[in-house]
Amino acid sequence: MENAPTFRETAVELFALRDEAGPILYAPLGQLMARVNESAASCALAYAADHAVLAKMSADERAVVDELAAHGFFDEQPLPQGDGAFQPTQVTLFPTNRCNLRCSYCYAFGGEGGASGEPLVEMDPAVARAAIDLVAGNARTLVDEGNDVRSFIVSIHGNGEPFCAFGLMREIVRYGREASERVGIPVVFNTATNGVLTDEQLAFVAENFDSVNFSFDGLPAFQDANRPMAGGGGSFAAIDRSMRALQEAGVPFGIRTTVTADMVKRMPDIVAFVADHYPAAEQIHFEPVWECGRCTTSADAMPGAAAFTESYRASLAVARGRGMKLVYSGARQDLVCDAFCKVGNGGFTVTPSGDVTACYEVSYSSDPRSRRFFFGRYDVLAGRFVFDRKKLAELALLNVRNYPYCRDCFCKWHCAGDCAAKVLDGIAPHEHAGSSRCEVNRALTLDQIRDKLDWNPPEERGNADDR
Description:
Layout: E1 10-11, E2 15-19, E3 22-27, E4 32-35, H1 38-49, H2 59-70, E5 77-78, E6 90-93, H3 125-144, E7 152-156, H4 166-183, E8 187-193, H5 199-208, E9 211-215, H6 220-226, H7 236-248, E10 253-259, H8 267-277, E11 281-288, H9 305-321, E12 325-327, E13 349-350, E14 355-357, H10 370-373, E15 374-379, E16 384-387, H11 389-395, H12 420-423, H13 436-454, H14 458-466
Parallel strand pairs: 6-7, 6-13, 7-8, 8-9, 9-10, 10-11, 11-12
Antiparallel strand pairs: 1-5, 2-3, 3-4, 13-14, 14-15, 15-16
Helix pairs in contact: 1-2, 3-4, 8-9, 9-13
């Protein structure tokens, strides 16, 4: 019997946003936006809700509707949806939960085995090889089926510092290249590190990784206070040395800064410091600390939404003036999606113990959230990964379509309901009730919309100047 045809759901979604200049008509699915007056906004929303009202409109109102329709504001657009079957071509490996730092807000209690003190372990090389075989094989299969897959990706991250298992790191890269040759598809290597690295490790990074991200709190005092060495003392000197070494080697990198309440007002200073000292940094990623993990036992606190938003705006002005890119995970108007991350498609992350988790932030079996996010593990006897298909089906429900709280929010197809590990801690998808991040997400996404509306191409600015 032939397979039944599948249809992609479509919709018309239209919002009237407002700022000090008046209404902004916004169609998120088509990423269409226009500044209009109140009358135009009202008749546009009325027509989008019920086309029959057109007959009752005045000639001027119908003209407004016709103009907006000509630009696609009332066109049905396909709703974003997941990738379908679980067939990952990217794996994130956590080589070890050991760590040479004791960051005050670490979500994973790095170096201590999580909140429950699980054993400090290193991933069995067989687990890493099996994971690489899986994603490389999937990539080959998808290419053979006519899909546009140009690489498979091996990311090395951790609930500890991955370079504390440097020998395994070497084996992962060696085997990844071998798998690439075997399947005839390029491999991409990414890593995130705390930057406390030896000369040998820095040379290895420079030679092998396509993307490098440093966890760095931006100013020496913050780095030393928030991210001390395991044996005591600050870590700024070590990470400064590492970033300068990669810079001198011509290796670009990114910086991820966790912002606490004590740091929030200094965010613009952090951008300026990075721009002055590390011009090889391609971007700075600011994230407000989330009160979990070691943060629950320290004095660190999450910055208020208004304070973070205001400081981010000031930081963005500094970044633009210095030619740097600044990002925050919840503000991404350029992206139309139904899930914040790969969690709904079973993001393939392997913990040091061989468990498979859909979420970086849930990496221990003792974490109550593992009942939701763990969906497989490496079977030693079979020599392969086994997956719980029921769990995968449940993970597929972790998307904004299933969050009633988000239904009427213009931001829903961009932030996609935000991080499931944060907003769904211990609750069902339909119980999603937002968080303080929602205020930040909406404010900064609206800023991105306004930036596009208010931007003029250089040639138009020149013409305006001429006039």
